[in-house]
Amino acid sequence: xxxxxxxxxxxxxxxxxxxVSSVQLTEAALQRTTATDGKLHxxxxxxxxxxxxxxxxxxxxxxxxxxxxxxGQPAAVAGLPLAIKDVLCVAGLPxxxxxxxxxxxxxPYDATAIxxxxxxxxxxxxxxxxxxFAMGSSTENSGxxxxxxxxxxxxxxGGSSGGSAAAVAARMAxxxxxxxxxxxxxxxxxxxxxxxxxxxxxxxxxxxxxAYGSSLDQVGPLARTVADVALLLGAIxxxxxxxxxxxxxPVPDYAAALQTTSLSGLRVGVPAEYFAAGMQPEVxxxxxxxxxxxxxxxxxxRPVTLPHTAQALPTYYMIAPAEASANLARFDGVRxxxxxxxxxxxxxxxxxxxxxxxxxxxxxxxxxxxALSAGYYDAFYLRAQQARTLxxxxxxxxxxxxxxxxxxxxxxxxxxxxxKVDDPLTMYLSDVFTLAVNLAGLxxxxxxxxxxxxxxxxxxxxIGPVLSEVxxxxxxxxYEQAAGWQAPQLAV
Length: 492
Known about the structure:
Elements: H1 8-17, H2 22-40, E1 43-46, H3 48-67, E2 81-85, H4 112-119, E3 123-128, H5 162-169, E4 175-179, H6 186-192, E5 195-198, E6 219-223, H7 226-236, H8 254-257, E7 267-271, H9 281-296, E8 300-304, H10 312-327, H11 345-356, H12 359-372, H13 377-398, E9 404-408, H14 424-428, H15 435-440, E10 444-451, E11 457-463, H16 469-483
Parallel strand pairs: 2-3, 2-4, 7-8, 7-9
Antiparallel strand pairs: 1-3, 4-6, 5-6, 5-10, 9-11, 10-11
Helix pairs in contact: 2-3, 10-12, 10-13
């Protein structure tokens, strides 16, 4: 049996039954990575030795549990090989955030999401590629080269969590963690044909996440099925005193909640603004067909309006760069990372930042600095925050009448590598259906709902009110089971 083809949930069940070991799963994942990542470049660092140590420890915990079941069974994700986006700190492993600015930096501590997975006995096979400091929609902005889509090597995997999405889709890991600032978990999940969840802002701790936009960033799981994502979310969610924005709310048993997936009476809203001009016709057709499938399952489908949707993209690209300008000011070569020569302190800092940051990071730093500068703050940043409030109110009004919103995750399927790198605005439009969710702090999930004529995946996005992850997972699972989705043919 090729165990790399198992879903995370199926692998977990076999581990508990003693039919496979964590060492077997980990060896298979590492062998698959060795065989395919030369073509994909999903990983920036593979930690084979560390992963095998974790796998042997997990097998020992399973053996102890079988010998003494009263001692407590291992956690749901114990022994499962996972990939980690290289914006999350893992003690002892490089953390570059896809940037030359952090080349050689090895954090001495774990991010909270990582420490929770480590305590649960998960296995970390390595760190995955990302757009520099999570700034991008294609993983082409990485300082270490682009990642390729495992379904079509000439196309992007999406971004900025493209390495994580590609690793899961190509069967190099059973699940992965990414970060989502404006769609960076959901968009690559859609383009690679897997499931990605952006939790409610504050549902998962941001401690140890290298910040891009602090009021927008959220850690989220990627995996092959809705049930897999539920298992991962349950392992990382929860309050963290190390993160002042962390929500102090109980964590439901997301996996157990999937035992109930009836959609009878569920109110599904279809926002007209999310079926925009320029949308790839095959994407619209597949998403509308998915919505009709929800109706057939008992959901009540009705139109809704989100009138300030057109303001979401300019609002996001004012707020996110402003926060990035502040967050990235700490990277100066003085304390960590490479340092360029200079005749004095400021010349050294200027040379270091000039050499370390890539073009997209520089573009957003300059845009954000300008927006925050004296004389322009009120005209740009303050007005963007006011628009953000209106966008949030649109969602609140919609959720008085419906339970979830259904729309496309992306306006097109995966585009070709290099197609949009010289046209930033066109690239930014790749996230036009996802970034408003981050502005409002809401949860959303992307799952496959079809293929275009070229065999490229199409993503269905479901959006819910604050802390509605249980409902989103239930709706997503009901659709997934009814649609009988099969993974597309891989090119590797």
